[in-house]
Amino acid sequence: MLRDSLKWREKWEVDTTLPSWQAPEVLEKHFPSGSTGFDKEGSPVIIVPFVGLDVWGLLHSFTRTEVIRMILKHLENYLAIARKQALTHGPDALKVTVIFDLEGFNIRQYAWKPAAEMVFTLLKLYEANYPEILKSCFIVNAPKVFSLAFSVIKKFMHEYTISKIKIFGTDTKKWQAQVLNLIDKDQLPVHYGGTMVDENGDPRCSLIVKPGGKVPKCYYSKNTSEKQKNYNKVTIKTGEKHVLDLLCADNDSVLKWEIGVEHHEIKFQIKRRDEEGNEEVVHGPRKIAEGPMDVGVLSVTGPATYSVIFDNKNAFLKNKKIFYDILITVPTRDLNINDEPDDHNEPVAAAYE
């Protein structure tokens, strides 16, 4: 593992050109992250306001290698600070403490294949080359839908990493109390339970912890364009159901969906039926209303048949029009999870247009 990691560091020039490499200004500006201080044992505290991460915009504007190199440079800088801290605080300072703020988290952009590939590539890269550097990770303001995403991505994590992650909802009293057990208030922005503000009096310390934000379309590659997705469309008559059966042949698979309703609402659930005919409900039932697309992922196992059911039986005199994109995929097989640098000069998204 050490030999492989040394070869990997050589390929990415981590110890040679990376320290002096400058990320494009727009990329640096629109990647949300920053550090406001140290935890009680002297380790760097990294804050990532996830809502400001415009994966779609970044991957339409920059190459995959540029995005990963910038993340690697940030990580190496934090580890250099940790090593310096360890000289005065001892070995406990050699790791990092991270706060991922999922306020405003939208799972839809991570259902996009290039974004999913980037996430899994970064997980592979981290586990292979930076094992056991995580002291503690607080995922705060997590919406309910995040549990579906986490059930998928944790399969790519080592048990050690998973054991260091604590997930909290939007109850600030609960997660701030846990954060303050490890970090003093004068090392945290007011927004996260501390006492810090930046020069502008911002409780989020946005001058220190970059908020990221939408990448302006003027930076998008000329070879990428936003194409309208072709969804399956169906009209479900009053008192009827529409059932979509999907065969799952492999373990470690993922069922992904994007569903829209033109008017009113539709009842939605997913059932699993194994080879012996045993059936169970694995998601729902719940209602999907007109408005934004309902996007989700579900960890599934085979061999089994998963039935996605749209139920209009309780509606009177109202046909329902829905449109959807639903499939079962195996991330390790169907995604390009490659942690080596490439020589492509076009943004990641260009290959998918």
From TrEMBL:
Residues 216-328 form the GOLD domain. Residues 23-200 form the CRAL-TRIO domain. Signal peptide: none annotated. One of its GO terms (cellular component) is cytoplasm. InterPro entries: CRAL-TRIO_dom (IPR001251), CRAL-TRIO_dom_sf (IPR036865), GOLD_dom (IPR009038), GOLD_dom_sf (IPR036598), SEC14/CRAL-TRIO_domain (IPR051064). This is SEC14-like protein 2. It comes from Bombyx mandarina. PROSITE patterns: CRAL_TRIO, GOLD. SUPFAM superfamilies: CRAL/TRIO domain, Supernatant protein factor (SPF), C-terminal domain. PANTHER family: SEC14 RELATED PROTEIN, SEC14-LIKE PROTEIN 2. Transmembrane segments: none annotated.
